[in-house]
Design brief:
This protein is α+β, with helices and mostly antiparallel strands. The strands form 10 sheets. The chain has a 10-stranded mixed sheet. Strands 21, 22, 23, 24, 25, 26 and 27 form a 7-stranded mixed sheet that branches. A hairpin with a 5-residue loop joins strand 40 and strand 41. The longest helix has 26 residues.
């Protein structure tokens, strides 16, 4: 097959980008003839369909590749492809069955694809199809989500990034609600760091057919797209809305054995809160993170209400409590003292998470807090850390067990994982197990805004200790029906399944603690009648919707329970329930997959390639002639990181990385993993690095005195640590050393690309059952993610602050450091039973038996002896006349 690659990608809610690359690496524009996003929102439940049409402008077969990232809360429900008249549809199955069917179809030579998910981080999948010369492809993807209310409104976000100008580009959002729509706003186009990219008012039409319905259409013309960027439109299109709540603060949809209860009252006074801030001040919080945390805390302290109380605990390997008891916000002197305390915080030491939380929970015990004359107080802990536990109680299960046992007051813990090195998995489990929310804070210029913004969501509690009861509906048929807090501007959704109603009406009782006192009965009355709901819409309007929302919310909450539990039997039972519900209602989840096969009644060509994406993996069999091939992947959060899938062909060795297409440097990664604190197993230095620390910033080059250009920063050496040699060996590399390592048995290959004699790109390729390729260069760096890579024989660890990526293989570690357009590469031979293969620069070096005879003298297995010169600036030995 000739190699021309065309890619499209969908980001956040949607963004599609198409390119074409030849085997020689030339990049050409492919043409997107149409890109439509249609989102139908009914009673907060959004069903979004993405339709993208592309054509291959070349006179040779090309590969169309779609890289898709979905909203965190979305489940894929349908996928259909049409390539030159060939239609392919998706079927959701259990993970193991989907894998078996895919492999069976592949073995028969039938075109097949497979969508699977990872259990963490942002949903994401990649789709690849082969298109005939001048052929066309249509891509249809459907996903569903329940919109969440924050800050007093719902928000639907569509991210658009075509990578080119598109003549037929449209976003259409239709909206229908049970009550009058009181707020309907289309803010300016934005991205994560810039809230105002461009005003979209002149490109947007808003039609209101009734007080409860609206249609919003965004059609940016070519002039508007050109005005934003040379590469076309890039940004988030946003719709914000809310509904009338003057009569009651809730809605109930009730029909056909299912109900959905939306609860969002606003006629309550804020409860006094007891807020405890537990802040990480370990050594890793130095410099920028500490400044950003201080800025955020100064903002948060200003948000506290006059009747609130608060306290601050800081921790590293030691725990420091600011005050022995909760401090009154109303006391101006206390607030000034708190502001000064925050400004004087310093970072240092290790990280003892369990000790900090234990101290905080002890301080928040009801017997210690008291109520200070107030009948009801809402206790909240806001916990922030940027790392993983390195001292004290270790292990996720041990920490979770300790926190659970000590949280006798059932205090809600809201946890923040700050930066890429934070143990987000632990942070999330702590929050879910203790009635809170876990969230990731990205290392970016707006980190302080992210932290303060999170607190603004939970800073004002209107009700606490809420319990929802529904007559004739067993508790086991309900979704979560007890909540520790109801926050101002939010919404609680409870769903249930019933068999028979008394009098064909649903009796609802809601009790909570309010400003009037504990155990207040908020509702105790018959509500919506069967087949009517609280709306005048006919039964058919929401008959399917109520059941779908019940299934969606049930699966979401079961997934949270599965994440939080430490009991293996309970986890297994939850997995079975999730799988059964997902199969019944057609959701792609971490325990289900989608198999895509060509319709049986359509003609097929000769047996063709099979592609599979499972947890960032890509599979390609032998080359053949086939009109349609497909590969799919869903990666679930929050990570799962960005690892570059590649298209492999047998006739031309070629790698095409989706990561090369990332054009927006301000967009934060959509799938950032929880990274362990990583310490290199070797002293890694470079021409301009000392002890792993970068000492100077990049500056514009100045001409040398003789008028010649100075050499660019970068390394022409491979640094190698070979036990028991204490000082690394630095070996000169040249553009002829493109093959760094190869293990045919493990189907592993590591290669390098050079620019001006310096390494500019590293590629790791696994061509086993589930092939995978990771490419590291200047463009792809910010999109890498830690963790495993499906079946590939390496694990990736990132240190974003040092721009360092460490690949752990069975025999050695490969460390790549990003320096501008150049890469520095180091290898550390691990003391393990695995033996490297003597192929490539690294393989020949590690199997040569190189060892130090005396200071400055080295020998290899064949008896050759080499003298070495110590390079002080690199702190390494350079062997004279040694060649690999």
């Amino acid at each position: 097959m000739h190699v021309e690659a065309v890619c499209a990608r969908l980001l956040v809610a949607l963004g599609i980008c198409c390119w074409a690359g030849t085997a020689l690496g030339t990049i050409k524009r492919a043409e997107i003839t149409s890109l439509h996003v249609d989102s139908d929102i009914q009673f907060r439940y959004a069903t979004t369909q993405v339709t993208s049409r592309l054509k291959n402008p070349l006179d040779q077969k090309s590969e169309a590749l779609f890289d898709v990232t979905l909203p965190n809360e979305a489940f894929i429900t349908n996928l259909t492809l049409e390539v030159d008249g060939h239609v392919m549809v998706g079927e959701i199955q259990g993970r193991e069955e989907a894998k078996r069917r895919y492999e069976a179809a592949r073995d028969r030579g039938q075109t097949a694809g497979h969508i699977a998910t990872r259990s963490r981080e942002t949903n994401r999948f990649t789709l690849s199809v082969s298109v005939a010369p001048f052929g066309k492809v249509t891509f249809n993807l459907t996903y569903q989500e329940l919109l969440r209310r924050k800050h007093g409104y719902y928000e639907q976000v569509v991210y658009i990034d075509p990578g080119q100008e598109v003549a037929d580009l449209q976003v259409r959002i239709s909206l229908k609600e049970a009550r009058d729509i009181t707020r309907l706003t289309v803010p300016p186009l934005r991205n994560d760091l810039d809230p105002y990219i461009a005003d979209v008012e002149n490109m947007t039409q808003v039609k209101r057919s009734s007080d409860r319905e609206a249609v919003v259409v965004f059609r940016p013309d070519l002039d508007f797209q050109r005005a934003q960027a040379a590469g076309g439109l890039a940004g988030q299109f946003v719709l914000q809305y809310d509904i009338d709540r003057t009569m009651t603060g809730d809605d109930i949809l009730l029909v056909n054995g299912y109900f959905v209860h939306f609860f969002a009252p606003e006629n309550f006074q804020p409860l006094p809160s007891d807020v405890l801030f537990i802040l990480d001040v370990s050594g890793s919080m130095k410099d920028t993170k500490m400044k950003q945390m201080k800025t955020a805390m100064l903002s948060i302290l200003g948000q506290l209400n006059a009747h609130d109380r608060f306290n601050i605990i800081t921790f590293s390997n030691k725990v420091s409590v600011w005050r022995s008891e909760m401090a009154e916000v109303a006391d101006e002197d206390v607030r000034e003292e708190a502001l000064l305390h925050v400004q004087t915080l310093k970072a240092g030491g290790w990280t003892d998470i369990e000790k900090a939380l234990a101290a905080g929970l002890d301080l928040m015990r009801p017997s210690k807090r008291g109520n200070a004359g107030v009948e009801v107080r809402s206790p909240i802990i806001m916990f922030l850390t940027d790392g993983e536990p390195t001292e004290g109680v270790m292990g996720t299960d041990n920490i979770l067990s300790s926190v659970k046992n000590k949280n006798e007051g059932q205090v809600a813990i809201f946890s923040l994982a700050f930066g890429g090195d934070a143990d987000y998995d632990l942070v999330k489990k702590i929050a879910l197990q203790n009635h809170g929310i876990g969230r990731r804070i990205y290392e970016a210029s707006d980190a302080a805004i992210q932290i303060a913004g999170f607190y603004s969501e939970i800073g004002v509690s209107l009700l606490s200790n809420l319990t929802f009861r529904y007559l004739d509906v067993p508790v086991e048929n309900l979704t979560r029906s007890h909540y520790t807090n109801y926050f101002n501007g939010s919404e609680i959704v409870v769903c249930g399944r019933y068999e028979e109603l008394h009098g064909r009406s649903l009796t609802v009782q809601v009790t909570a603690s309010s400003e009037k006192g504990p155990g207040t009965i908020l509702q105790a009355a018959e509500r919506a009648g069967e087949a009517q709901g609280n709306t005048s819409e006919p039964n058919s309007m929401f008959e399917e919707l109520t059941e779908k929302v019940w299934a969606y919310l049930t699966i979401k909450q079961l997934l949270e329970e599965e994440t939080a539990t430490t009991d293996n039997d309970q986890r297994s039972a939850l997995k079975d329930r999730i799988t059964n519900l997902a199969l019944q209602y057609g959701f792609v989840t971490p325990h289900t997959s989608m198999v895509v096969t060509e319709l049986a009644d359509q003609p097929r060509q000769a047996a063709g390639e099979g592609y599979i994406f499972e947890e960032q993996a890509y599979h390609s069999t032998a080359e053949s002639v086939q009109d349609v091939q497909v590969g799919l992947s869903i990666l679930r959060p929050q990570s799962a990181g960005f690892v570059n899938p590649a298209v492999q062909h047998s006739d031309v060795k070629h790698t095409f990385s989706v990561a090369l297409l990332r054009r927006d440097p301000l967009r934060r990664p959509y799938s950032v993993p929880s990274l362990p604190g990583y310490g290199l197993s070797m002293p890694y230095v470079s021409d301009k690095n000392v002890n792993g620390q970068r000492k100077r910033k990049f500056k514009k080059r100045k001409p040398s005195k003789n008028g010649r250009k100075q050499k660019g920063r970068g390394s022409r050496f491979l640094l190698a640590l070979l036990p028991p040699i204490k000082t690394p060996i630095c070996l000169p590399l040249s553009p002829s050393n493109t093959l760094l390592y190869e293990d045919i048995d493990k189907q592993l290959k590591i290669s390098a690309m050079y620019r001006n004699k310096y390494i500019s790109e590293i590629t790791l390729t696994y061509s086993g059952i589930i092939p995978h390729t990771t490419v590291i260069n200047k463009q792809t760096w910010d999109m890498l993610g830690s963790g495993g890579t499906g079946g590939a024989p390496w694990t990736l660890h990132l240190n974003p602050s040092k721009q360092m990526a460490v690949f752990t293989l069975d025999a050695f570690n490969l460390t790549v450091t990003n320096i501008g357009r150049k890469m520095e590469v180091a290898v550390s031979h691990l003391l393990s039973d695995a033996q490297p293969k003597p192929v490539g620069v690294i393989g020949r070096l590690l199997t040569s038996g190189l060892h130090e005879v005396s200071p400055g003298t080295f020998k290899v297995n064949d008896g050759h002896e080499y003298r070495a010169k110590k390079i002080k600036k690199n702190k390494c030995w350079k062997l004279k006349h040694y060649s690999i």
